């Protein structure tokens, strides 16, 4: 019917225009207005279509079930994976746990530093349980308009149920990243939009009936658990809190092997050595190390990644890209003595811990010493922390010994030293004993801080004075080569010590 009207209109309009011209009517304004109206109609229609497709496309892409990612493809989190899989078994073995009277879980909270694999574990959970997977970020629920966030929460749960029914699946997993954005602690007084969104989330979680299909499981992730509202953390909502922490050496090696599968490694490359040198790296940083190593190999037209490429990649991830700063020769000499001071103290208090000494600018640093911890540490004694402070003070002590004064290059070293002294105080490892920082005056804290740092600086200077020959043998080579490997530095160190003896 509409087609007939369209054809009649197409035939009638030209006839009408010809008749008006015949009657002497000026049709140019009519044609102009008609063209303008048609253009506006076309623009509105096109804009609406683009908005609908963009909005719909974004929504679909965010909630698309991920490609088949399994827990085997996630390395370095064996404990967290085991705990998570045990919780997910409540969905898979629903009838078995029902016989034992176990209440299925409604929510799982993944906590830990950025880049440790929380999102990957949520995606693997959907594959493990054969569930519909929908993902959203906490920031998506935050709007300046009141009620929008709460409405989006309702829509998310409604869509999860609808998709599970449509795809014939018994379970649906909703993953909310950055839950601290909407789940922060509520304050008294005027209601915020965040509070309404959180209230709606709590209501939806309370409305989950774990015995009814489709069953919904909420997995949330945050690296700021201390900011979350207590109503979210109680049993019956987020029942399990799973720590996804930085990997240990074994975990780092497993992650490196996973990301090295599609990269050619040269013969003799030791990923075990790389795992040792990357203490404190997250899974995302380890992936970045191998990616940067491949880029370095490509720059040199190499067909495989070699050990120096991995070493440079570690520096790149830690410090940033090597810069082309042209430093004056006297400034470069000061940097060389400064870094040798760090390296000499490190070799004295922890033999074998120096991995590299360089005066090549990288990122904001004019030079640096990369340390290779012999083993992962999670507990620190007073002696260990004092040795670490002495390593940090070694650069400034070397400058005072050679030049009679310090430079601004020691600023970061002093910040690290002060942080370690605070850690000692909070752990009861200083002369103040076990203290509550709020019950001790600032004057007492400053006196203890100064006493510790002054005593350690004197020890550091004394040790460096006894190793002047090491400076003499290493300085010229470091200035010429700009980079000394740990092995080369130790060879020069041992030779200098033997000659002075």
From TrEMBL:
Coiled coil stretches, renumbered: none
Specify the AAA+ ATPase domain's residue ranges.
104-248
Keyword hit for Cell membrane: no
Keyword list, A-Z: ATP-binding, Coiled coil, Hydrolase, Membrane, Metalloprotease, Nucleotide-binding, Protease, Transmembrane, Transmembrane helix
Residues that span the membrane, as ranges: 12-42
Q: Which GO terms describe its biological process?
A: proteolysis
A Pfam family cross-referenced in the UniProt record is AAA_lid_3
Annotated protein name in UniProt: ATPase
- Which organism does this record belong to? Paenibacillus pectinilyticus
- Species lineage: Bacteria, Bacillati, Bacillota, Bacilli, Bacillales
């Amino acid at each position: 019917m509409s087609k007939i009207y369209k054809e009649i209109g197409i035939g009638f309009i030209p006839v009408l225009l010809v008749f008006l011209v015949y009657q002497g009517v000026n049709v140019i304004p009519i044609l102009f207005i008609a063209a303008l109206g048609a253009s506006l109609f076309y623009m509105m229609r096109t804009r609406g279509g683009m908005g609908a497709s963009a909005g719909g496309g974004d929504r679909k892409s965010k909630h698309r079930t991920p490609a088949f990612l399994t827990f085997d493809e996630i390395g370095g989190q064996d404990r967290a994976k085991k705990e998570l899989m045990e919780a997910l078994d409540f969905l898979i073995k629903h009838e078995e746990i029902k016989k034992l009277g176990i209440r299925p879980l409604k929510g799982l909270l993944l906590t830990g530093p950025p880049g440790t694999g929380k999102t990957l574990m949520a995606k693997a959970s959907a594959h493990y349980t054969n569930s519909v997977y929908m993902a959203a970020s906490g920031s998506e629920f935050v709007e300046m308009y009141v009620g929008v966030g709460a409405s989006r929460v309702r829509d998310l749960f409604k869509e999860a149920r609808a998709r599970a029914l449509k795809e014939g699946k018994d379970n649906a997993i909703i993953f909310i990243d950055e839950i601290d954005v909407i789940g922060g602690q509520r304050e008294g007084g005027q209601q915020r939009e965040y509070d309404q969104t959180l209230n709606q989330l709590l209501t939806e979680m309370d409305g989950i009936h774990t015995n009814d299909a489709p069953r919904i499981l909420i997995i949330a992730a945050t690296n700021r658990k201390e900011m979350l509202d207590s109503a979210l953390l109680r049993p019956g909502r987020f029942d399990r809190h799973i720590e996804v922490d930085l990997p240990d050496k074994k975990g780092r090696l497993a992650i490196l092997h996973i990301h090295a599968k599609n990269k050619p490694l040269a013969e003799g490359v030791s990923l075990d050595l790389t795992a040792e040198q990357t203490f404190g790296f997250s899974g995302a940083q380890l992936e970045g190390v191998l990616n940067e190593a491949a880029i370095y190999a490509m720059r040199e037209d190499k067909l495989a990644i070699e050990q120096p490429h991995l070493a440079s990649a570690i520096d790149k991830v830690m410090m940033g890209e090597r810069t082309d700063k042209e430093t004056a020769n006297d400034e470069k000499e000061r940097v060389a003595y400064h870094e040798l001071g760090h390296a000499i103290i490190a070799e004295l208090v922890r033999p074998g811990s120096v991995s590299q000494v360089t005066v090549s600018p990288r990122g904001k640093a004019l030079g640096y010493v990369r340390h290779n911890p012999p083993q992962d540490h999670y507990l620190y004694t007073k002696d260990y922390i004092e040795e670490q402070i002495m390593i940090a003070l070694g650069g400034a002590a070397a400058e005072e010994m050679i030049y009679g004064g310090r430079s601004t290059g020691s600023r970061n070293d002093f910040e690290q030293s002060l942080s370690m002294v605070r850690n000692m105080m909070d752990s009861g490892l200083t002369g103040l004993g076990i203290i509550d920082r709020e019950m001790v005056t600032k004057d007492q804290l400053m006196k203890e801080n100064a006493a510790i740092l002054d005593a350690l600086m004197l020890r550091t200077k004394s040790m460096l004075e006894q190793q002047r020959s090491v400076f003499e043998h290493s300085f010229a080579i470091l200035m010429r080569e700009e980079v000394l490997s740990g092995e080369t530095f130790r060879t020069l160190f041992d030779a200098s010590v033997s000659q002075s003896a």
